[in-house]
């Protein structure tokens, strides 16, 4: 049929048909795109359509709930990590009386730092001059102090193991989550908790991750960090701190304690 010979009525019907088909195609494409759009975008488009309808018709549509906010997970802050792991760091003092009674004020001289072992029942340390079978005073971050007997001493490595004498109703704080060297990355951020009288913090990077032996860092510190707790930004601990004569911090992995206490070497 030649379009030039169409009547006005036929032309109008043809235009309506083309418009109808175009609208249908546009609607199908729009619905498909809306299904793939993020929820926030969909919400914005719906509100625009509703407001346009209200402006034209004067009819107020039902209020829609606000689009949910997108939450982005973030890593723990340094303060969060310190709060989480500090209870597993202890200070060791010369023995008081070995009575097993808790005391909030240590009555003896400072010996060094210790860390609650991964078994959750003992304490490991690399403090010097620890005497086998002697009882020492262990002070926790909350100020509580209890006696602990030395059950293992390795004279070559200065590693020692303490068995706390727990009063009734008292349990040791949870140990830090352990992480092995295979799950660490070169250049990973590390934090070291130590200090003779109160907890101090220093930070740095992991500079060497050998298959065995100590891990190296670029952290410099004084001897008050010897035996301190080393943790990653997530709060996992690869081991405890060794301090060289030059003040360089290295990491003694928990597996190094296997020779004196196999139960404390389990790690992720």
Question: Could you explain how this protein is built, in words?
Answer:
By secondary structure, the chain is α+β, with helices and mostly antiparallel strands. The chain has three domains: 3-57; 88-164, Trypsin-like serine proteases (Thrombin, subunit H, Beta Barrel), CATH 2.40.10; 181-264, Trypsin-like serine proteases (Thrombin, subunit H, Beta Barrel), CATH 2.40.10. It is 21% helix and 27% strand. It has a six-stranded antiparallel barrel. It has a six-stranded antiparallel barrel with strand order 7-8-9-12-11-10. The model is unreliable at 53-73 and 262-266 (pLDDT under 50).
In terms of topology, how is this protein built?
Blueprint: H1 8-36, H2 39-57, H3 78-85, E1 89-94, E2 110-116, E3 123-125, E4 135-139, E5 145-154, E6 159-164, E7 189-194, E8 200-208, E9 215-220, E10 229-232, E11 239-243, E12 248-253
Antiparallel strand pairs: 1-2, 1-4, 2-3, 3-6, 4-5, 5-6, 7-8, 7-10, 8-9, 9-12, 10-11, 11-12
């Amino acid at each position: 049929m030649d379009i030039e010979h169409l009547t006005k009525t036929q032309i109008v019907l043809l235009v309506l048909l083309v418009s109808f088909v175009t609208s249908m195609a546009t609607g199908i494409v729009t619905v498909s795109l809306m299904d793939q759009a993020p929820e926030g975008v969909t919400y914005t488009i719906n509100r625009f359509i509703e407001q346009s309808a209200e402006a034209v018709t004067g009819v107020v549509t039902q209020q829609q709930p606000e689009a949910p906010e997108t939450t982005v997970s973030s890593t723990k802050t340094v303060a969060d990590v310190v709060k989480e792991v500090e209870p597993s760091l202890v200070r060791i003092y010369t023995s008081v009386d070995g009575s097993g009674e808790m005391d909030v004020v240590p009555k003896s001289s400072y010996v060094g730092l210790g860390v609650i072992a991964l078994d959750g029942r003992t304490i490991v340390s690399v403090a010097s001059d620890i005497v086998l079978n002697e009882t020492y005073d262990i002070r926790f971050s909350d100020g509580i102090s209890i006696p602990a007997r030395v059950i293992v001493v390795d004279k070559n490595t200065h590693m020692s193991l303490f068995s706390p004498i727990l009063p009734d109703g008292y349990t040791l704080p949870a140990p830090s989550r352990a992480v092995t060297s295979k799950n660490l990355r070169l250049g990973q951020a590390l934090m070291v908790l130590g200090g003779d009288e109160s907890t101090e913090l220093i930070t740095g990077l992991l500079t060497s991750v050998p298959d065995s032996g100590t891990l190296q860092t670029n952290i410099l510190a004084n001897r008050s960090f010897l035996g301190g707790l080393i943790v990653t930004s997530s709060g996992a601990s690869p081991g405890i701190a060794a301090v060289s004569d030059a003040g360089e911090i290295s990491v003694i992995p928990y597996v190094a304690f296997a020779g004196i206490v196999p139960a404390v070497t389990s790690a992720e």
